[in-house]
């Protein structure tokens, strides 16, 4: 009987070992899936970043084109102004073309100042 008991015990132990091994394999598989998913997320993030950079370049190019067109239109309209105003307007346009960022910053500052003044006048 001892041999049968030992054989039964060995079979039960082998079954427990198989179950434990199956659980270990499943845990490893889950970990590998997470890593695979993280890699997919990383690839997707890179794709989104590339798309965003491309869109930003397109928007910047459109903004530049719009600004150039607006400046060209403003220069065309300067010629319709009275003679006394024409020369200062041309000088102003030259400054705008040479230092557009500075002019934009100044305009933004002026807008903020005007909004603050208007707010104070309503209070």
From TrEMBL:
What is the organism of origin for this protein?
A: Kutzneria chonburiensis
Spell out the Gene3D superfamilies in the cross-references: Apolipoprotein
Which keywords appear in this protein's UniProt record, sorted alphabetically? Membrane, Transmembrane, Transmembrane helix
Q: Enumerate the residue ranges of region (Disordered).
A: 1-24
Compositional bias per record (Basic and acidic residues), positions renumbered to this chain: 1-21
Q: Which domain of life is it from?
A: Bacteria
* Protein name according to UniProt: DUF3618 domain-containing protein
Q: What is the lineage of its organism?
A: Bacteria, Bacillati, Actinomycetota, Actinomycetes, Pseudonocardiales
> Membrane-crossing residues?
101-118
Q: Which InterPro entries match?
A: DUF3618
Q: Name one Pfam family in it.
A: DUF3618
């Amino acid at each position: 009987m001892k041999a049968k008991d030992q054989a039964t015990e060995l079979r039960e132990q082998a079954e427990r070992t198989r179950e434990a091994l199956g659980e270990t394999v499943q845990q490893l598989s889950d970990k590998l899936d997470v890593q695979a998913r993280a890699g997919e997320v990383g690839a997707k993030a890179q794709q989104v970043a590339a798309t965003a950079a491309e869109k930003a370049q397109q928007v910047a190019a459109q903004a530049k084109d719009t600004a150039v067109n607006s400046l060209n239109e403003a220069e065309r309209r300067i010629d319709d102004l009275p003679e006394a105003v024409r020369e200062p307007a041309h000088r102003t346009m030259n400054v705008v073309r040479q230092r557009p960022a500075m002019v934009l910053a100044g305009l933004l500052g002026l807008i903020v100042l005007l909004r603050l003044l208007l707010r104070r006048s309503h209070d």
